[in-house]
Amino acid sequence: MRFGRVVHAGGTSYVEVREQTAIELECAPFGGVRPTGRAWPLDSVRPLAPVEPTKIIGVGRNYHTGAEPAVADPGEPLVFGKPPSSVIGPGAPIVLPAGAGQVDFEGEIAVVIGVRCRSVPRERALDVVFGCTIANDVTSREHQRSDGQWTRAKGYDSFCPLGPWVRAGFDASDVEVRTLLDGVVRQKERSSSMIHDIPTLVAWCSEVMTLEPGDVILSGTPAGTGPLAPGQEVVVEVDGLGALANPVVAG
Question: Do 130 and 235 belong to one domain?
């Protein structure tokens, strides 16, 4: 089952996607799927970011062959926050801010929380996960190096593309993550190479903060990240989840 948010002739709605049809829902599907009776052909609607998170929790250095291969296993998950205002949907432009220096793509699997939860044991962590979608954790490398923490580097508007759909109950334990820049594969790794798997990440984050329905945990990126330039298109693909494509423009 796939879910998301779309723009249609009458406004904006949460939908369930069945084959080539977008079926309107009364509200976000976390508390149950309640169709309104309206539906549209999928090619007549425009996908938005599939959820509206209260918070986005990023995870750094989480692949054995990761973006920082010379850095040792951090022991515990290394987490940071991205603001909800950084979220954009499929097809929306990634805007490169003036003065941000090198801005890199980071293709990732995004975990979507389904219920309000706190202090979830690892063995029950998947019970609070609604599903997974695709993310691009866009990052200013210059600010990441200079600031000593990553809020500004990760937090610009448009620096968190998400989508196109959330697939409920998705098993993300061993799937391939790929990032293509102008059609050339730049990242390619299996999620089984994560240092901390998804149940561990969910449990660890829930010990720190209450997780709300629709919140997103970005599970980390493999090796191969690189700079973006205006006029390019970056596409993140995850087997079973589809493809998230975004153009790049100058700010």
Answer: yes
Q: What is the pLDDT of residues 35-83, one digit of tens each?
A: 999 999 999 999 999 999 999 999 999 998 755 544 556 689 999 999 9
Whether the CB-CB separation of 211 and 113 falls below 8 Å is answered with yes
Distance between CA atoms of residues 172 and 192, nearest Å: 9
Statement to judge: residues 222 and 104 lie in one domain: yes
> Which amino acid type is present at position 21?
T
Please indicate, yes or no, whether residues 201 and 85 belong to a single structural domain of this protein. Answer: yes
- For 84, 112, 118, 130, 231, the CA distances from 125, given in Å and listed in that order, are 23, 12, 10, 11, 40
Q: Please give the residue range of the domain that contains residue 95.
A: 56-250
Cα–Cα distances (Å) from 248 to 30, 83, 126, 174, in that order, read 32, 20, 34, 30
pLDDT at 144: 94
Do 108 and 30 share a domain, yes or no?
Answer: no
- 3-state percent breakdown (helix, strand, coil) of the chain, nearest 5: 15, 45, 40
Q: Which residues contact 145 (CB under 8 A, 6 or more apart)?
A: none
Which CATH number belongs to the domain containing residue 14 in this structure?
A: 2.30.30.370
